[in-house]
Amino acid sequence: MKMRGLFVAIAGLVPALAFPCAPAGAAPPSWAHVPGFVRARAGWQSPAGPVSSAGVPASQHAWPEQKVTASDWASGDLYGYSSALTPDTAFVAAPHAAVDGNRNAGAVYVYRKESGAWIQVQKLTASDGAANDEFGISIAVSGKTLLVGAVVHDAAYVFNDYGGTWTQSQELTVSGAVGFGYVVALDGGTAVIGAPGNNGFAGAAYVFKRLNGAWSETGELTASDGGAGEWFGKSVGISGNTILVGMVPPPAAGAYSVQGAVYVFTRSDSGWSQARKLTAGDGGIGDGFGFDLAVSGSTAFISAPIEQVGTFNLGAVYVFSNSGGAWHQAQKLIGSDDTGPNVFGFYSVALHGNTAVVGVPGASFDSALPNPPSLEGAAYVFTRADGRWNREKVLRASDASAGEAFGSSVGLAGNGVLAATMPEFGGSPAPDAAYIFGPINLGVTAGAP
Asked: What span, in angstroms and rounded, lies between the C-alpha atoms of 174 and 217?
């Protein structure tokens, strides 16, 4: 029997967030309420077994850090639910922020680094936003294009950077799609948008292509063996000619009923086609494989946040590599039990070349089970050398305190890392915040924040 105590405990602290229900005021449609489906997200392991924390490089040093918050933050905004980072711009979403009196309409806050300091420069909202739209439940950025999902509105919004000002340029929709915008991914002129509520929650993912500045739908992706209630489109990722789509049904009474899977689609002259179905080599029912994912080039990180490691459900992230078109499991990253069962990889995974970040908002440094977990949270940075991923750094907020759930969402770009806190997940009354670390010398050639 797997121990799911911490998962259930965290679930009881927050609204049902898939699709989230409003903490106050009118609630989204009844199909949006899925009890116990929350985000929470330590160490690494080769296929042969775990490596202890003693393996962390002795050369680690303090990384530059800046804390940012929303200028008009209010309790219940869920600031930090999703985030993204470029070398010079940071985006932090608050999908339950009130806009012009409309509760849970949602907003995205934009920060720019000027004279060495990150400052808020904009607050983005949807041109046709309404109460409970949850604009910002998902965001993705590529170059000067930002994609923002609004799941209850069944839409995704495109913003472009025009001379330093981000401006809405298009609203993307698909007739009949349910849950459209729950997750989004973006790579250059191609976007992928998940709609896990389609067809009785069998789910789908839609591909959009930019041509002459305008975005249009070019394909609908579904699982070849999918069925009702399986939530295909729960997670999505894109890199070049590869799209990954996760299929993970929500838990019933705090426990998953299936293992989960990730489907690989490849692009050819005739469009996108399913090429592979990925599962964990040692996975089992209830692991939540595919809950979150990230793909960069020939490497994919896929989380299984309820994977049992030893006694507890510490969670794991599986590394898959693509060699000659064949994807294979190359490594398994896990958490140690020094911070309790922290549900490693539950939503916050980011990958950029040879650097990856995994958020662990359930990490508890001041206490562990059987005492109530303290949930300060952490973000683990991994770097790749000689084909292997090694833990490089454990990031924590400099002013960490119990219940802040640091690492609820993460971003990665060039030589910088962003990690957001989510006190509303951890039971703390403290304001939400995001922390930006950088520049960091990890051998990444892209520009540094």
From this structure: 8
What's the CATH architecture for 5-437? Answer: 7 Propeller (2.130)
- Please tell me the distance from the alpha carbon of residue 99 to that of residue 14, in angstroms, as a whole number: 22
Q: Which of 293, 285, 278 is nearest to 256 (CA)?
A: 285
Quote the tokens at residue 117.
């300091």
Reported as a pLDDT band with limits 50, 70 and 90, residue 282 is: confident
Q: What residues are paired with 273 via a beta bridge?
A: 266
Tokens of 232: 């295909």
What are residue 21's phi and psi, to 5 degrees? -105, 155
Tell me the CA distances in angstroms from 83 to 51, 147, 294, 412, one per residue in order.
Answer: 30, 11, 14, 10
Residue 325 near residue 337, CB atoms below 8 Å: no
Phi, psi of 232 (to 5 degrees): -65, 130
Dihedral class, residue 337 (left if φ above 0, else alpha if ψ from -120 to 50, else beta): alpha
Q: pLDDT tens digit string along 313-336?
A: 677 899 999 998 899 999 999 865
Cis, peptide link before residue 57, omega less than 30° from 0: no
Tokens of 366: 């001041």
Which strand (E) or helix (H) includes residue 181?
none
Model pTM score = 0.86
**Coil vs helix vs strand at 53:** helix
Distance CA 146, CA 108 (A): 10
